[in-house]
Amino acid sequence: MRGRTLSAGIALAVFAGMTVTLAAQPVAASPTTTMTEARPIAATAAALAAPDISVSNVQAHLTQFNSIATSNGGNRRAGSAGYTASLSYVKTRLQSAGYTVSEQYCSSCTYPSNNLIAEWPGGPTDQVVMFGAHLDGVSAGPGINDNATGSSTLLENALVLAAQNPTMTKRVRFAWWTDEEQGLNGSRFYVNSLNSTQRGYIKGYYNFDMVGSINGGYFINRVTSTTAAPLKAYWDSLGLQPEENVEGQGRSDDYYFQQAGIPTSGYAAGASARKTSSQAAKWGGTANSAYDPCYHRSCDTTANVSATVLNRAADGVAYALWQLAVSGGAPTCVGGQVVGNGGFESGNTTWTASSGVITNASGQPARTGSYKAWLNGYGSTRTESLYQSVTLPAGCATYTLSFWLHIDTAETTGSTAYDRLAVQLGSTTLATYSNLHAATGYVQRSINVAGFAGQTVTLRFTGTEDSSLQTTFVIDDVALQAS
Q1: Contact predicate 457/354, CB 8 Å
Q2: What's the pTM value of the predicted model, to 2 decimals?
Q3: Which of left, alpha, beta for 436 (phi over 0: left; psi -120 to 50: alpha)?
Q4: Which of 80, 191, 83, 96 is nearest to 134 (CA)?
Q5: Domains of the chain
Q6: Residues assigned a catalytic role
Q7: In what side-by-side order are the strands of the sheet with 352-353?
Q8: Phi, psi for 117 (deg, rounded to 5)
Q9: What confidence tens digit (pLDDT) does each residue in 4-33 have?
Q10: Which of 461, 462, 431 lies closest to 449, judged by CA?
């Protein structure tokens, strides 16, 4: 990944027809564990339709790139012998697999050299889904996490696609970019070489830059966009609760595609920024340490890669590719929990709330755990809210929003609703509760929300009090289950 941040004037577009996402509860797994991860039970036959990408095969490509660097002055910088050998390694395997492969000379690059473009000969030529990664590294080291991981992930996915040779609904194009580290020059040259018609053919560009960071996180470019939906759906099915790739904005090869109005997304595992305590709690790894401690250094070797993070990225690429471009790949239902941090035990993670609403204060006990959402209870005019964006998968049989609600009130008139809690999904008010619903302890509330299938909407709780006599609304264990 490039080290200097570009200004972001990003034009987002909607990629019509893409699969939508669901969220799941977090799992804490060490990002450095070596493993081949089984498909989760929550991922239905739709996820199983995509192939399992062998992380061992991806690692074998990493070993080759590391050897290439060792044999060519210790790096794979654009324009160097190490870069040329890396390009040859990828090109030879793609040609043998049956791809239409071309090299594009980047004359305006800092180190003039070639992009590598490979297209699978199936699907309509005017409906292109593109997957890209930069092939070059910095001169300081072999550039294995940055970015042999992205390059190898795409190479193995391309080889598996060729081996399975499914019926295609869209054309799939892979790209390995040169001169990314000097300013995203290879991808910029490519985008600038396209005329408006050719740009319009590209329905989505997916970028993969540093997808195996040894202390890594799970980041997605424009995570809430429709374009990101299939990438997010797979990681959500693993319970990873991915976050926006804030560190990488404007710093990798998706940037000039965005500027050209092409919808973009992609995976990343983090560079020199430091993992937060909350991220370490849900993803494992070391808090307050860099995602990649060898970023742009000589120690960026094969030892600087998490097999677990790499495996999850490689399988997520396959899932997205199958959903977007393979006949029969669209899911019927990827069921599970859609709400993130429904028990509030991770504090404000995934929620936006009025100050002090998510709390472990002892005045009102949580139903389970220590934290809950406590709205109102002041006995004066006040409005407080709690909300998060959720995406309901298409094709499921049932969709149920449920939560546990405790209402405590000092209001004494038994027939007037003075203080209210509104529950909304998007612009629709699903239910309203008031001081009239006060009860001892928690009561579970369940609402059918099947009408929102396939939509990304905001789940919102809003509490309002009048000028006197308090009413407290305490919410815990929120769930939105699709099955």
Answers
A1: no
A2: 0.65
A3: alpha
A4: 83
A5: 45-325 (3.40.630.10), 336-482 (2.60.120.260)
A6: 180
A7: 352-353, 382-391, 456-465, 420-425, 428-434
A8: -120, 130
A9: 333 333 232 323 333 323 233 333 333 433
A10: 431
